[in-house]
Amino acid sequence: MLKKVLIANRGEIAVRIIRACREMNIDTVAVYSEEDRGALFTILATEAICVGPARATESYLNMDNILSAAVKTGCDSVHPGFGFLSENPTFARRVKECGLKFIGPEADVIERLGNKSAARELMQRYAVPVVPGSDGVVETTEEAAETAEKLGYPVLIKASSGGGGKGMRLAHTAEEIKEAFETAKAEALANFSDDDVYIEKLIVNPRHIEVQILADEHGNVIHLGERECSIQRRNQKLIEESPSKAINEEQRKRMGEAAVNAAKGAGYTNAGTVEFVLAEDGSFYFIEMNTRIQVEHPVTEMVTGIDIVREQLRIASGLKLKYTQSDVKMNGHAIECRLIAEDPENNFMPCPGKINYLHIPGGFDVRVDTALYSGCTISPFYDSMIAKIIVHGATRNEALLRMRRVLEEFIAQGVKTNLGLLYMILYSPDFIKGKYNTSFIEENLGELLRPLEKDRML
Ligand code: ADP
Asked: What is the DSSP letter of 217?
């Protein structure tokens, strides 16, 4: 069993990992930037070590310093969390070269799946449905135009190394393809130092549904059901729930099997997520596989009762999965809201600053994953997501009413947040009915940002 884990991350996910380790009697080493000296995760870890200045490139992305810290403090493993170095195959490789266990899949697997165009080809080989698109990378404008013509407009041009919605461009017509192709390529180069792009048919009004999988190092792979992640703004998820209202038992079964096949085909180990888009006609297609723990993993934990981070640590220790597929039961319904320090009324501008007063609500079936405390400061240097509020209920309606109640009680004074926007979404008739797709926020933003009037409260 692992004995001492270095956590190459910060914020709430670092706290989440420390908590799982603590409950398993595993020591933790936090690495932090000068900016994070007083952060909760540095306080909660067994040991904490400064790895550089505020700028992430000099601290949380500084492989040399992080690896030195791991070796110097006698760690046997590294948990990368999400973001930062979590999907960087070079980092995973270097962790291994230092004689440490990387808590995630093998570097080669991260590399293979990190190239989205190559991942598409891999999935096709294992009979996982992919969005109709180009055969691999598209090299020239002419080839892009030909491919788009064959697929039928509208199409999406996507960066092979893409992530976070960057390097993705839409073309509605043949007139738009040249510019879309060139801007996607330029953006891909600027963001990922790789200008390879490929083309996918645009699935109109899709839902984003993903399947959590767990794979041990003995060939066992299971899935933990799906998460509905269609409430997004600019490709960033905002509210997630499990199960999805959009699929039936039969689709759930097929999607789960496809995810397991995807993981088996990729030679995957540890926790991962297979992302699909669901079309209006009920067909679903693979879009990418994320080779790390996801932000929204708690909704799956709330419905399955399985601690995914604990399983990650067990798998990395070489243990067999504790569960078989038939052990996994989805119980009730869970919803997660991402609280972000930003001003929705001012074009969602990030709002770093000091939290003067914090009140985190509790109550039955409520969970809040955060690194906030009264008096802490939210840094402008990092992601502005400051808390994940998760509730569970016997039914979706119970979970929905519980989430409203929790948001009403939540107080984070000192910075602007999207709390009001989240609350308004929970009163939107289409959200209540579960009738929404990835365009929901864009289409409803005006209405959602209208000041809450008394007659709309019920
Ligand atoms: P990234 O890695 O940049 O986040 P993804 O491939 O995961 O990119 O896609 C991000 C989002 O874009 C998805 O959640 C989905 O809403 C939308 N999307 C991706 N591919 C398609 C497609 N072919 N048709 C329609 N929407 C898509």
From this structure: T
